[in-house]
Amino acid sequence: MGTRRILSLLSLAVCAMSLVGCGGDTLSLDPVANAASKTAESDSARVTFDATVRAGSIGTMSFSGHGIFDGRSKTGWMDMTFDLPAQAQAQLGGNPSMEMIFDGRDGVVMYMRSSMFPGVPAEMWVKMDLEKLADQEGFDLGAVMNANQADPHQTLRMLMASSDARPSGSEFVRGVRTTRYSFRVDLERLADENEDLRESLDEVLQVTGTSAFPGQAWIDAQGRVRKLMIAMSLSSPAAGRVTMEMTQELYDFGVRAEIQPPADEQVVDIAALMGNS
User: CA-based, 20 to 30 A from 77: which of 136, 156, 256, 266?
Assistant: First the structure.
């Protein structure tokens, strides 16, 4: 199994399938799981993020950025930049950036604008209807979701599978007092509560033996996640040790967000780039 496939499976296993439907056991006594459920139900928030992925001899990739998400309209916007290995930079002409818009009002649609799409003018957006693409035989939804790891709704859904959470200190995050919790994300519990992830999770467990990974969450007095850190690690025959470390901060809850998808004349469908009719 190749590195891309393994990373895709891992991404799919720990992320949500969409901006909406952040399910989970809201009656759980685990404080991190409860905070994740409450935060996912918040109307809107701003987010900053950064992550680093190390894949053995392949090299190190990192990305960072910021965004805003609106739970009422089920939409979001994100701007991110990448720091890629030298070989990838040579192919792409440097370190690229990407602007993304998510629209979950009718299905799950993602719009992306980046120099990483060859042949697409800089002002155009590439549209991906994730549900339609997933229905196409042979399409790897996990590869699409890799581009969406920074969506806080995904990581919040992942936190809903928290277990063994325990307080480990008190800190201020952007001027707000929080309690820091250490916990583990239980992939088996995530699969039990989200049947749509079961098949991919089973494959992750079979290939890597990874069933849980550690994290930290900073929770405010209102029971909302203000900051989170996760660390994932697995072994791959193709890439050796693969690790990912990611940090997110959520703030400005209730901020006004007016996010609209781009106009039709500014959009090219991913199906056209794939050679589909």
Answer: 136
